[in-house]
Design a protein that fits this description.
By secondary structure, this protein is mostly helical. The protein has two domains: 164 residues, no CATH class; 199 residues, no CATH class. The chain is built from twelve helices and three strands; from the N terminus they run βααααααααααβααβ. The protein has a three-stranded antiparallel beta sheet with strand order 1-3-2.
C-alpha cells in the first residue's frame, strides 16, 4: 500500500520511541551522534545521510508497533463510529422526508380530484346542493334583470306623474302612468325632483332585499317584519295610484261628478290597475330575487368548498417546499459525513508518526554530532564555526523536508492513498 504524507493535527501526550535500536543496548542518541560524527570527522554530507537513515528506522519502527498505532488511532476510530451512526440516522431522516413528500403529493392529487367531482356529485361530500342550481340561477337571473328594469322605469315614471306632472286633457291611463320624458322633465324642474324620482326605485329594491333577508330565518318576528314591508309597499303604491287617478279623474269630471275621494278611488278600475301594475310586479320581482339568491347560495356552497380545498392544496405545496429545503440540508449533511468517514478510514488504514518524539531524538543526535566537532575535532576556529553552521543547516533542511518543523502538534498522520 502506498502512503501519501498529509498533515493532520492531534493534541496528545508525547510518545517515547527510540531513534535507533542501539538505544536498547544503553547507547543514547547523543552518544550515537557523537560516535558517528567522530567516524567521519563531522562531515555534513554524512550527517544528512545519517539523519535520513535514522528517520527511516524510526518510521519503520512506528509502523511495526501495532499496539501503539491502535492506541493513537483510537480517537479516529471512535469518531468514525459516531459518524457512521449519524449517517444511518440521516439516511433514515432522508427516507422519512421523501416519504412525507410522496404522501403530500398524493393528498394534493386527492384534493384536486375532489374539486373536480364536487361539481357533479356534491352529495358525495355531504353538501346539500341542487345539481341544477347553476341552471336555475341563470334562468332566474334572466327574469330578474328585465323585471328590475321594468320596476325602475315604472316607479320613476309614476312618481314623477303623481308628484310633479301636469296632465293634459284627453290623456290616457297608460300615458298618465308612463311618461317617456320623465327624467328630462324632472331635470328641467330641478335637481331635487331629479334625485327624488331617481332614487325611489331603490327604495323598493331595498325592501325586496330586506324581505329576502328576513325569510332566511323563519320566526314570528321576521314574519311580522315581512308583513309590515308588504303593507308599506302596498300603501305607497296606493298613494301613487290615488294621485294619478285623481289627476285623470279631474280632467274628465263634469259639473255633476262627485268629489274624488278614497271611496271613489276604490271604485275606480284605473286605481287598482295602477296599484297592481307596480305592486304585483314588485312581488314577482321579490320572489324571483329570493329564488335567485337561494340558487346562488347553493352555487356558493360548491365554490366555498372548492376554495377551501384549494387553500388546503396551497398549504400542502408550501409544506413541500419547506420539506424539500430540509431534504437538501440532509443531503448535504450525508455528503459531508461520507467524506469525513472516508477521510477517517484513510487515517485508520495509514499510520501515525509521533513527531515530537522523533524531533527530540534527532535533536539529541545532532547535539552529539556537534559536540564532537566542538570538543574533539582539530581545526581552526573559523573552520569549526563554519562546519557547525553547515551541520545545523543540514539538520534544519532535514526537519523541513519531513514537514515536521513545528511545535504545535504531537503526531503526524500519514493517510492511505489509493
Amino acid at each position: 500500500m502506498g502512503l501519501l504524507k498529509r498533515l493532520t493535527q492531534l493534541n496528545s501526550k508525547k510518545e517515547t520511541v527510540s531513534i535507533d535500536t542501539s538505544e536498547k543496548q544503553g547507547i543514547t542518541a547523543h552518544d550515537n551522534g557523537y560516535s558517528n560524527s567522530k567516524a567521519c570527522s563531522g562531515n555534513p554530507h554524512n550527517l544528512q545521510i545519517s539523519l535520513e537513515s535514522t528517520y527511516e528506522a524510526f518510521e519503520k519502527k512506528c509502523k511495526e508497533d501495532y499496539t501503539n498505532q491502535e492506541r493513537l488511532k483510537q480517537p479516529y476510530v471512535a469518531e468514525q463510529k459516531g459518524k457512521k451512526t449519524n449517517l444511518l440516522n440521516k439516511d433514515e431522516e432522508y427516507n422519512r422526508l421523501k416519504g412525507k413528500i410522496t404522501a403530500i403529493h398524493q393528498d394534493i392529487d386527492n384534493l384536486k380530484q375532489v374539486c373536480r367531482k364536487v361539481k357533479t356529485n356534491p352529495e358525495d361530500y355531504i353538501l346539500d346542493v341542487d345539481k341544477k342550481a347553476s341552471a336555475k340561477f341563470w334562468i332566474g337571473l334572466s327574469f330578474l334583470l328585465p323585471l328590475a328594469a321594468y320596476i325602475f322605469v315604472f316607479y320613476i315614471s309614476t312618481s314623477f306623474s303623481a308628484f310633479f306632472r301636469e296632465f293634459d286633457p284627453g290623456i290616457s291611463l297608460f300615458q298618465g302612468m308612463f311618461d317617456p320624458q320623465a327624467l328630462s322633465k324632472a331635470y328641467n324642474a330641478g335637481w331635487l325632483e331629479l334625485i327624488f324620482i331617481l332614487f325611489i326605485p331603490f327604495v323598493f329594491f331595498a325592501l325586496g332585499y330586506l324581505i329576502h333577508m328576513f325569510q332566511e330565518k323563519k320566526n314570528i318576528a321576521n314574519t311580522l317584519k315581512i308583513t309590515a314591508l308588504f303593507i308599506i309597499t302596498f300603501l305607497f303604491d296606493a298613494i301613487l295610484a290615488y294621485l294619478i287617478d285623481e289627476k285623470l279623474y279631474n280632467l274628465n269630471k263634469t259639473f255633476h261628478s262627485e268629489v274624488f275621494n278614497i271611496a271613489t278611488a276604490f271604485k275606480s278600475i284605473s286605481f287598482w290597475l295602477i296599484i297592481f301594475a307596480g305592486f304585483v310586479s314588485y312581488i314577482v320581482w321579490g320572489v324571483v330575487f329570493d329564488f335567485v339568491m337561494k340558487e346562488h347560495a347553493s352555487r356558493d356552497k360548491i365554490k366555498a368548498f372548492i376554495k377551501e380545498k384549494k387553500a388546503a392544496i396551497l398549504e400542502k405545496e408550501k409544506k413541500i417546499l419547506k420539506t424539500e429545503a430540509h431534504i437538501a440540508t440532509v443531503e448535504n449533511n450525508i455528503s459531508d459525513l461520507k467524506v469525513r468517514i472516508t477521510e477517517l478510514q484513510n487515517i485508520i488504514d495509514g499510520f501515525i508518526l509521533p513527531v515530537m518524539n522523533y524531533k527530540a531524538s534527532s535533536t539529541e543526535y545532532l547535539q552529539g554530532w556537534l559536540k564532537y566537532i566542538s570538543a574533539a575535532l582539530q581545526m581552526g576556529k573559523d573552520e569549526k564555526d563554519h562546519l557547525l553552521s553547515e551541520c545545523r543547516t543540514i539538520y534544519n533542511k532535514h526537519i523541513k523536508a519531513l514537514d515536521i518543523n513545528t511545535d504545535t502538534y504531537q503526531n503526524k498522520i500519514y493517510t492511505k492513498t489509493l
